[in-house]
Automatic annotation (TrEMBL), chain A:
PANTHER family: PYRUVATE DEHYDROGENASE E1 COMPONENT BETA SUBUNIT, PYRUVATE DEHYDROGENASE E1 COMPONENT SUBUNIT BETA. Gene3D superfamilies: 3.40.50.920, 3.40.50.970. GO terms for biological process: organic acid metabolic process; sulfur compound biosynthetic process. Keywords: Oxidoreductase, Thiamine pyrophosphate. The keyword Oxidoreductase applies. Its cofactor is thiamine diphosphate. It comes from Natrialba taiwanensis DSM 12281. One of its GO terms (molecular function) is oxidoreductase activity. This is Transketolase. Residues 15-190 form the Transketolase-like pyrimidine-binding domain. The keyword Oxidoreductase applies.
Length: 334, 348
């Protein structure tokens, strides 16, 4: 079923990605009193990314807690808290700051459950914003979800639409495992239809077919979902493009992708991680493992060309993967 | 000899000039950011000029500093060229970082400026490293890290100060306590009364000075520098100061009231230093006006230089990654050279 058909069965409201995440947080804070938010200036200030907004007014400072600038400390504390009966939701602000907290993520959060023989649950959610496009330069524009997806013991989701943003955030908070929610900063204002049902979730590990097509499959994430849909519109009548948003990076819905590839025989993977050892590599490997004999052309990838995000606009625009790159890749194989 | 020191009349006038230059530079940076000519974000140093200038006046020209996201003042105090700084803010090829860094990453390693930094608390370990080089090669220098009150909460800051003190390195840690980290007041981030109290944990001197008084800052840093050069290890200095503007430009500042801002402005460091120089007979109102006019001209020139400089060509995105280029990156540059047009991230 396409994502659109899925939504047509629900009562929806139009809202931005930012509002959709805030609604998810609001509903989960209201539903479960063990859930609380921690991060820098998430309280009265409303968050640097303006996502937590008015949640502080509604839930108070214990449940929407400001922290010192201490990512290693509060990500570690969240892990310890999650292991001991509460369900913290961390706002890490820029995903580049994962670097500061990496020890607690890779050696504690990711490993505790397994090392302890499965006797501990770590129900922690970490939200972080990714991506270039606003001149924020190399230390505030990273797309790092491949690291987290690579690391055993962590789950990672990355919405490309408002509905997915809400459904995935809620699923992350309800999960008993560590889940990272990667929000692309360029799509916070993107609008979409979002189910109002308080129990609407997007199960972690389910991709969405955002548009059906016959000639080529574009697997796109985050900002590139919308850009790929635009490309599909532009090419309609000429090339029929199927667009899939994996939504969940780990676990990854291999079957939905493979099924599409069996139909189209051609595939482009578009994701903002740097190309080498990026998210593309995993998606492509799995796709060819499942559907190699359906392939009519080499699978193409669109990503950041192994540079950091430069500051100056023409440089940033040069390295940012975009619809033009997706279109060129489609043209080459169709 | 330092470029300027508060011990001589010329040095004091130079210090005043630099404080004015910082204020004018950041005033213009704020304006061109608001106009949309400067992309990204900018964090202004207005109000804190005495800290950067008092500190750098006590350093020798080849001493090292590490800076923060709020780095323009440190750069100017250290003697960087406002033209190249402004060009960097505008994203121009002629800027300090060829347009790759922007406001948050201005650096001039040859001038002892190891970079503004987008990661809060990342400077101190780098300064400890610079102090290690100095110590290792027995050079007559020190390394000083500027860090904010908020940065004191970072784990890597603790690790850096602990190493520097344990290894007795010629380092200085200069905490700019401007009372807030973003929107959060310092009391909500730390349990100690004074941030300089944290020095006790490392058994190094910790002093708090009035950061609105350029002389007080410079005296503390001179003392710390002497101590570092004598082989007695690092010092932590907390300078109490205040940023007049928001955390970044565009910040609505709903977390503080205008009265608080006004009270700090009454203690303005430039105003009080100017008065002191006038009282000492080293400056007249007319000379001050002239100095101010010169500074305005300098910054107007810097803006003009930035505006007239070229933006980098897209191809330059693929330069500067490594000393030996790699094919993974080179393929994009060569494709641009042959095909033209943006790659859009397309790997072929
Ligand atoms: C590791 C890290 N965490 C968070 C941020 C976001 N951030 C940028 S500036 C800032 C506040 C810094 O406060 P302070 O150290 O007091 O410096 P000030 O801005 O007051 O000069 C924060 C939280 C960051 N850049 N790096
Ligand atoms: Mg501060």
């Amino acid at each position: 079923m396409t994502a659109q058909a899925e939504l047509e069965r629900e009562e929806t409201e139009t809202m931005t990605v930012r509002e959709a995440i805030r609604e998810a947080l609001r509903e989960e804070l209201a539903r479960d009193e063990d859930v609380y938010i921690m991060g820098e200036d998430v309280g009265a200030f409303g968050g640097v990314l303006e996502v937590t907004g008015d949640l502080y007014e509604e839930f108070g400072e214990e449940r929407v807690r400001d922290t010192p600038i201490a990512e290693a400390g509060y990500v570690g504390a969240a892990t310890g808290a999650a292991a001991t009966g509460t369900r913290p939701v961390i706002e890490l602000m820029f995903s580049d700051f994962i670097g500061v907290s990496m020890e607690q993520i890779m050696n504690q959060m990711a490993k505790m459950r397994y090392m302890f023989g499965g006797k501990t649950e770590i129900p922690v959610t970490v939200r972080a914003t990714e991506g270039g496009g606003m001149g924020a330069a190399s230390q505030h524009s990273g797309t790092v979800h491949a690291w987290i997806s690579h690391f055993p013991g962590l789950k990672a989701v990355a919405p490309g639409t408002a509905a997915a943003a809400k459904g995935l955030t809620k699923a992350a908070i309800r999960s008993n495992d560590p889940v990272f929610v990667f929000e692309n900063k360029m799509i916070y204002e993107q609008q979409g239809d979002v189910p109002t049902d308080e129990d609407y979730i997007v199960p972690i590990g389910e991709a969405a077919v955002e548009r059906e097509g016959e000639d080529v499959t574009v697997v796109a994430t985050q900002r590139l979902v919308g850009e790929s849909l635009d490309v599909a519109d532009r090419l309609a009548g000429d090339v029929s493009v199927e667009v899939i948003d994996p939504r969940s990076l780990y676990p990854l819905d291999t079957e939905t992708i493979a099924e599409s590839l069996r139909k189209t025989g051609r595939m482009v993977v578009a994701d903002e991680t740097p190309l080498s050892y990026g998210t593309h590599a995993e998606i492509i490997t799995r796709a060819q493992e499942e559907a190699f004999f359906s392939l009519d052309a080499p699978i193409q990838r669109v990503g950041t060309p192994d540079t950091h995000m430069p500051f100056s606009t023409p440089l940033e625009q040069e390295v940012l993967p975009d619809g033009e790159g997706v279109e060129n890749a489609i043209r080459r194989i169709t | 000899m330092a470029n300027y020191t508060l011990d001589t009349e010329d040095g004091r006038l130079e210090a005043l000039r630099r404080m004015l230059t910082i204020r004018e530079f950041d005033t213009k940076a704020g304006e061109y950011f608001a106009d949309g000519e400067i992309p990204g974000f900018v964090h202004l140093y207005i109000g804190e000029e005495a800290v950067g200038v008092g500190t750098c006046a006590a350093l020798e020209p080849d001493d090292y500093i590490t800076s923060t996201h709020r780095g323009h003042g440190h750069c100017i105090a250290k003697g960087l060229d406002t033209k190249l700084m402004m060009a960097e803010l505008f994203g121009k090829r002629s800027g300090y970082c060829n347009g790759k860094g922007g406001s948050m990453h201005i650096a001039d390693v040859d001038a002892g400026m190891l970079g503004a930094n987008g990661i809060v608390g990342a400077g101190p370990p780098l300064a400890t490293g610079a102090a290690l080089s100095i110590d290792y090669q027995d050079r007559d220098q020190v390394a000083l890290a500027f860090l904010g009150d908020g940065a004191v909460a970072q784990g890597q800051v603790h690790e850096a100060v602990n190493m520097a003190s344990t290894w007795n390195l010629p380092a200085v840690f200069l905490v700019e306590n401007n009372k807030y980290g973003e929107a959060t007041p310092v009391e909500k981030q730390h349990n100690v009364k004074q941030l300089s109290d944290t020095a006790q944990a490392y058994d190094i001197p910790g002093v708090t000075v009035d950061g609105m008084d350029v002389t007080a800052v410079t005296e503390a840093v001179e003392e710390a520098r002497k101590r570092a050069r004598a082989g007695d290890g690092p010092t932590m200095i907390e300078a109490e100061t205040y940023r007049y503007n928001g955390h970044y430009e565009g910040d609505e500042q709903n977390y503080r009231d205008e009265e608080e801002v006004a009270q700090w402005k009454e203690r303005d460091a430039i105003e009080s230093f100017k008065e002191r120089l006038i009282d000492r007979g080293e400056l007249t109102e007319a000379e001050f006006e002239e100095l101010q006019a010169e500074v305005e001209d300098e910054i107007a020139d810097a803006v003009e230089y930035a505006q007239n400089s070229d933006l980098p060509e897209p191809e330059e995105a693929y330069e500067d990654m490594f000393s030996e280029p790699v094919p993974e990156v080179e393929q994009f540059a060569s494709r641009l050279r042959t095909d033209g047009g943006s790659s859009g991230g397309d790997s072929r």
